[in-house]
Structure formats: structure tokens, C-alpha cells
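hey all, quick one before standup. I had two proteins in the batch that finished overnight and I want to keep them in one place so we stop losing track of which output belongs to which input. First protein below, input sequence then C-alpha cells straight from the run.
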Amino acid sequence: MAENPPQPPGPDTPAPDTDEVGNPAPSPSAPPGQGDAQGPDSEPPAQPAGQPTWHILADEHMPGLRTLALRQRYFYLLSAVCIALGGFTVAYLANYVFDRATSDSRARSDKSAEKNVDLEKPPFVATVTFPDYDQNTPFGSAILTDRPLAAKEQEQLKKVTTPDAAWSLLKPLGGRILLAAPYFGPPSDSGGLDKRGMIQNFYLNLNSDRNSGLTINDLKAVVDECYTPSAKAVVVFPLQGEEARKGLLWDIGGGQPRGPYIPELGEEQGNLYFPQHAIDLGNGQANMALLAQSFNFSRTCEWHIKASYTDTSGAHTKRIPDGRKKFTSEAVPPNPDQFFIHYPGMKWMCGGQVVRSNCEFKSSQEWGFRDET
């Protein structure tokens, strides 16, 4: 008997994979409850009502709590908190004990490092400045020029009667100022300072930024070179009585430099400054400002200072001024081409190759210059 061929679906026959009303049927292999996948915009499942937030967080981060009873959960969490606090306490105590055990060695190490850094700083800085004679040109000064004064310049000079006016006239001509040396003599083995001569002033400012202190125990003069004075004209305004200036005085002439001496009036006048005195710098101490004076009689010399000092690392020396710079101690030539001298209330005195009008002519021997060369 022949089989009936399959009939096409009729209008009332449901299509495959659809339900009776024509909607897509769920896949037979899909687990119950998973027929509709949640899209990206679907809301997360609601939290169980009545549970605290910390319970929910504990469930998320410690899934094992889900299987424990509420009392066991409290015990578990309390134990975790105690273990964490105990670990923190142990770590803190271990760090505290370590700090106490190593504090001395670390303090010594830090102190050593600070000391090394401090010693890397310059021991001290020496700043040199020169007096401003434009404000006050004192009596007891000599003004030197490297060329003779012309006849007109000589007549202009003879019209002035004060050091200030003479300096205003001669400074534009390259004038330089020397001051009369004080009237005192150091110990006899130095040869004395009775020849007077002239001195040059400068201000020596010593300052140290170090935290540790240092002590300067000598400022020795070292002569680099000497030569014959070059001034051609000398104008002198003598001292009005004895004057001794504060500061330190080095005797640069006579071959071997000496000093520094104490030139100011008092029991110590003429004595060496070192070793009876010292200069302390650093450790927050104020800077030391000195009036330095170099004395020379017959020769002009270039020189520098060799400073000896001690600090926490030992004894050292430092050159003043730095590098190859030098001080110049100028002397008045024994027989200049021209010399002029003026005492208050008196007529100018002059000598050498000068215009003799309006001045009393004198030889160099008559007014105090000697030929020491």
C-alpha cells in the first residue's frame, strides 16, 4: 500500500519552532530561566531586602561567608579585624624597635654627612674694598701722579689749601692717595718704623657661611715683587698732630715683611696682633671687618696675605686675595721730579722741576725725603 506524500502546511497549521500563537518557541536545550538573555541595558538583580551593606560587601569579596550562619559571620569578621590590628601593631612595634636600635648609628651617619657637606663650603670669603676719598681726604695724606704737573696745573694747585680740593684737582690726572704712617716703632729687631714712610688703606671683610666654627690664627704678608717707585709728582698735606688708626698694619718694606701690628693708641700699640689675638668665624658668628694698612718706605711692592686657620678637619692656609690678584703697597720716591707741601696757614713749599712762583722752594732733603735706594 502506497504511503501518502507530505502535505504542505495549511493556514491553520503552526510553523516549526513556533508556539500555537506564532511566537518563537524556546530552545529545547536552554536551561530553564535562561531563555531570555539580559541586554546591556537590563537592570541588575535587586538586593535581598533586610541585609546590611557590609553583609553584601562581605558576600561579594568573601564568598565563603554565604554558607555561614549570622553568628559565625560576626565571629569570622571580628577575627579578621583582630588579625589585621594585631599585624599593624606588630609592624609598628618592629619599626619602633628598629628605629631605637639604629638611632645612634643613623645620627652619627647624618652628622658625618652634614659635616662633610659643611666642609665642602669655602672656609671663608675675603672681600676687599677701598676707601672713598671723594667724601673725605684727610690731612696726613700724599697724592701721587705718574707724570709731572704742567705749569697751569701747578698754578691751580697752589690756589687750593685743603686735601679735598687738591684731590678733586689731581684725581682726574690719575692721582693716588697714600697716608702718613703712625708714630710708633715695633720691637727693635724689626728695624723700627721711625722712617715714617706712607701707608695704603683697604677694608678687609672676612665672612664664613659654615655651620662649624674656624679660627684664623695668622695673616702673614708675602711679598711677590718690589720695584722702584714710579710717581713723578708728590703733593703732601702733613698730619695735624699724632694720629693712630685702628686696624692691622703690615710692614712690607725692608726685605722681610712683618706684622700685622696694632697701630691704634693704647697699651698694645706697636705689638703684633697674632698670636695674642685670633679671628673666629663661622658657627653663626658675625663677620670680621678690618682696616688693613700696608707700610712701605722706599720701594713699591706687590704682595698678598697667607691666612692660616684651623677648623674641625685640621690646619689649613688660604690666599688673600684669591687667584693671582695682589695688593700694591706704594712708596713715595726719594727724589721725585716735583713735590709740593702745604701746612695750614702757610705758603706752599715746592721742589724739583717746578714753577717757583707762589711757593717757597725747598730741596728734597729739607722737607724729609731721603734717598734710601
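OK second protein, same deal, sequence then C-alpha cells:
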Amino acid sequence: MRNKKYVLIEVLLLLLIQGFICSCGPASVDYLFSSKGVECADVDEAEKISGINFAVESIFEGMSIASVYAVKGKAIQINYGNDGGDMILRKVKSRNVIIDNTPYQNLLSVTFFDVPVTVKSRSGKVYAVTWKQKKCSYSLLFPQGKDNNTALAISQNCIFSEAAF
């Protein structure tokens, strides 16, 4: 029979290894912004903090920006609408990130400009559109839902703007 000390050490090592493996997995963007995000005065400040240039900002001229957040060296988020609830646009410097892990009834895969896009919807409304482009992950979130055509048009414009950037 093995010594209890050795069994305890083996268990502790396994837990340590498991914790290390879990911490190296994809990060949740919600957690990233809630734990490390800082509110910025404008998109220019967020770009400086995050180290990310956001070409898509210009295609939403006319939409009011409610708030802008950045995570140093990693991510940027722009909330559009009077209270920030109309649309949330995120860009993260990583292709290995969980942009949106909410379960949806319907998932649709489409391609714009050779970029695979996932459209997530329920009850006939689109709530999230996600994609990976170049070395970044993107998401458009629509908290109140958008019709399919509007959500796809906004996504297509984002992808085209970022591709040309």
C-alpha cells in the first residue's frame, strides 16, 4: 500500500496540472472586460490602450457611441446606442478566445470576403455575429436582437472595412 504522503502529493500535482491546463484555454471576453477593462473617453484612447486599430468605427458614423472600453494590449469594445444597448462591437487580439458562449436556438454559417462568420439567433432575431479575421476575434452583439438582413449587412460592412485596413 502506498504511503498517504505520496498519494496526497500526487493528488496535489494533478490538481495543479489541471488548473494550469484550464488557465491556458480560451478566455471569455466578458470576463476579460469585467476584470481588466477600463472605460475610455473615446475610441482613440481605447485604441492606444489596447494597441488595436479599429477601422470599422467609421462605418457607424451617425450611430451614437454610448461607451468605449479597452483592455491593455488585448481588446476593445464599443457600445452603440443611447444606453449602449443597441449594438456592442468587440475586437480581441487573439484567435483563441470565446467571444460569445450564450446558447442559441439557431446557428448559421456564412462567408463574407473569404471570412467564415457564425450568426447566432433565436425566435427570428439575431443576437450575435462572430468571426475571426487576420489575428483577431470579432463579435457584434445585439442585446435586443436585429432582423437577419440588418445583422448580416452590418457584419459584412465590418469585415470589408477590417479587410481593407
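Flagging for whoever picks this up: The longest helix spans residues 4-23. The two ends are 65 Å apart (CA to CA).
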